[in-house]
Amino acid sequence: MSTFFNDILTSITERGRSLIDFSGRERTGGKAGFDELFEQLLSERGEASGMAIAREIFERYAQLDATGRHDVIDIIADRFGVDLEAARVAAERFLDEHSDAAGRDLSEASEPRRQELFRRLNLAPDGTAQLVAMRTDLLKGLRENPDWAGTNADFIHLFGSWFNRGFLVLRRIDWQTPAAILEKIIKYEAVHAIHGWEDLRRRIDPPDRRLYAFFHPRLSDDPLIFVEVALTTEIPTAIPPILADGREPIDPRKATTATFYSISNCQSGLAGVSFGSFLIKQVVEELSRELHGLKTYVTLSPVPNFVTWLKGQTDPEADGEDRVLNEAEREVAARAIAAAENGEAPSNEDEGALTQIAAWYFLNARDRKGRPFDPVARFHLGNGALLERVNWAGDPSPRGLKQSLGIMVNYRYEPDEIEANHEAFVKEDRIVAAPRVHRLARGRNAARDLVAG
Q1: Which pLDDT belongs to residue 1?
Q2: What angle do CA 66, 70, 74 make, to 5 degrees?
Q3: Out of 70, 192, 216, 380, which one is annotated catalytic?
Q4: Catalytic residue among 49, 262, 264, 301
Q5: Which residue in 309, 111, 133, 337 sits closest to 218, CA to CA?
Q6: Are strands 296-299 and 386-391 parallel, antiparallel or unpaired?
Q7: Residue 301: active-site member
Q8: Which CATH class is domain 306-452?
Q9: What is the mean pLDDT of residues 259-276?
Q10: 81-90, 251-260, 359-368 — which is least confidently predicted?
Q11: Which of 105, 128, 178, 371 suits a disulfide with 218, CB 3.0-4.6 Å?
Q12: Is 70 a catalytic residue?
């Protein structure tokens, strides 16, 4: 259906191109002509002509190098914001009249012109994909160009509407899925790298393995986000057995636990547009309909910022007010970090201290914005999950050691408790965790008190 729709758009666009003379505008390697094309697109009333102009803009943009694209984004940011004079006039009228009509005029006048520019660019064949790619370029330079923040906010505003849950399609990916999509799954896997076709087959072909992805009609063969699922008879505590070559699959009808062990966002240009919570909830619904024996839904999640936080604790030049570890804990942490950087797992003798520190980290560590320090924790806790367990030696890979000393965690999704957990997190800033996690954290406090005594 999407291909058919794109074919229609392409046909209309080609007819539009015959109505517009682009021959007088050379396709240079810089930003020349883009401001004129943008203005022409905003003023164009013919649908076919508008599509043709949008396509011309994207074709020229695609030929630019990084500097040229930077210049085009500068034009969009600098020249297509809010018309301040029009907004002032509309605001004065609204204050005088207090009417719905004046309010609508004010709302329209206060909208940045680039939002309408993006809507019209979206009419081009593959316009949505092209805009997502343009935002990818913007994000690469956003830190060095803070004046792009308004343009970034406009992208997020529009993408939030265009990619809302009502437009997304859930598809199961299996070994019969077209190879072009399977290649993208290999490319986009962001948590546990897929090492070739046989590795992919082990993750999607056995009866006790699943992979689900969200797609959008305008990006029909390019997944937005996907989740990998292992069906097991107990909650797993480590990733190697899940990914092992030669393991013996189980009958999925005997599975009691569905474990989400990898969630990968595929489109960097859609950063900030959340799909993950919808994906997990819909996959839970799909699995519960298919497999009535499933009682437990958990993740086996990485802890990407744990070592970063530990390094801040062990840095002798760090602000003393931010330090919570005592001298003995800092010595343990420094020893474990040194081992991990050499590709070695921390000593099992340090398991007790490090898992206690990890439990405290999840329950208490905050970033500068007051949020849980760990981004994966923010995601799952914000979705209403419960912090179920801290797992020692969960991921002994070089990446796992460098990120978290090999520690992984389980978050549990209890359908009847998701809303209450979500409310506790967002309204009370309270992290809902299993008793075993609280006991670990209290164990650290007790150990500190013993040392202090």
Answers
A1: 46
A2: 170
A3: 380
A4: 301
A5: 133
A6: unpaired
A7: yes
A8: alpha beta
A9: 93
A10: 81-90
A11: 128
A12: no
